[in-house]
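Is C6P placement plausible here? Inputs below.
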Amino acid sequence: MSAPALRPAPLDVARVREDFPVLHQQVRGRPLVYLDNAATAQKPRVVIEALSRYYERDNANIHRGVHALSERATEAYEGARERLRRFLNAADRREIVFVRGTTEAINLVAQSFGRGLLGPGDEVVLTQLEHHSNIVPWQLLERERGVRLRVAPVLDDGSVDLEALLGLLGPRTRLVAVAHVSNALGTVLPVRRIVEAAHAVGARVLLDGAQAAPHLPVDVQALGCDFYCLSGHKLYGPTGIGVLYARLELLEAMPPWQGGGDMIRTVSFAGSTFADPPHKFEAGTPHIAGAIGLAAAADYLEGLGMERIRAHEEALLAYATEAVGSVPGLRLVGTAPEKAGILSFVLEGVHPHDIGTILDHEGVAVRAGHHCAMPVMERFGLAATVRASFGLYNTREEVDALVAALHRVREIFG
Ligand code: C6P
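Reply from A.M.:
I modeled the complex. Tokens:
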């Protein structure tokens, strides 16, 4: 008889909270309850220390200097690339391109893969729940290159209509670009299935992992995707840094999208030649400290275990989903069977921005608005929702504080 699989011990959230200095403060006379993690997550001390250590000891430009500091900075930056490779389980560290964030990663693909390899009549398939960052770059390409956008609809529970999406795939499909997790609804998309179907028609797949990487283990080889995009600041790392993962053969075939220092091999007025990936896509001085800080965040998450983080957040989301049911007139927007980290809702008769303001006075930080996903808001006939988004350090007590604050809103508005 085989031994039963050992479940990892649950996350020790009280201990984990000690790693995040910012959480231990009062806001408007109340303990801070930070539930705006989808917008940006707080940083553990190891990330803050990695940034200051770099600036205190090693700061120099990379790939250029012959001096000791430049060597150390280069080593730390390229070491960060290797740590991100491991975090995403990419096959090769040359497949990790440092960018400013998810927005820049998608624009890089649209401008380089899109402009370089797509033409009139080629189709890019999206879904109705995409963030503006995964819509507008393709619209720019549509205008410039005559590429055609096809959009898969969303069902009433916030799932993507998979049959409809599969029905859009065909011989003209060149790219399927979809969120791994929706930022507005929390829906986890069936990305394995989408990758398989897209590859079966010869299309490439880009996954917008901005809202997935902080919540789920991401293994780009197991997912089989061609591009994966994430933002460091949502992954408990610094702002201004992110990752584009792309298969090496694609990066090799794609033309550069920005010209400048560090991305060339030779430059002359007769013509220039370009560096190999990933440097071909990293023109100019990058956010060196950001990459180092992001690697510290990835190490921290690996240390805690992404499976444990997922289990903790799933339990918290289930608890919160049930708990907000006690608030009269509250309606959840997005109730797909598979969700991660996000609770979006409206409250009858109260504008989401008013709710956000009152919650803030109770010390509870949430986001209210269209969440940069206007098409999916329109799908539900809404201009805005309130969104509570959870991170690895959130607790049931904080969910209780959110619910108590929502009852307070109800008292005020009747
Ligand atoms: N969503 C939110 O509050 P940047 O801004 O480049 O780090 O990430 C853009 C982005 C792309 N895709 C998804 C799914 C996202 O959620 C985001 C950022 C934040 O939901 C800010 S609008």
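Short version: The chain has a mean pLDDT of 97.
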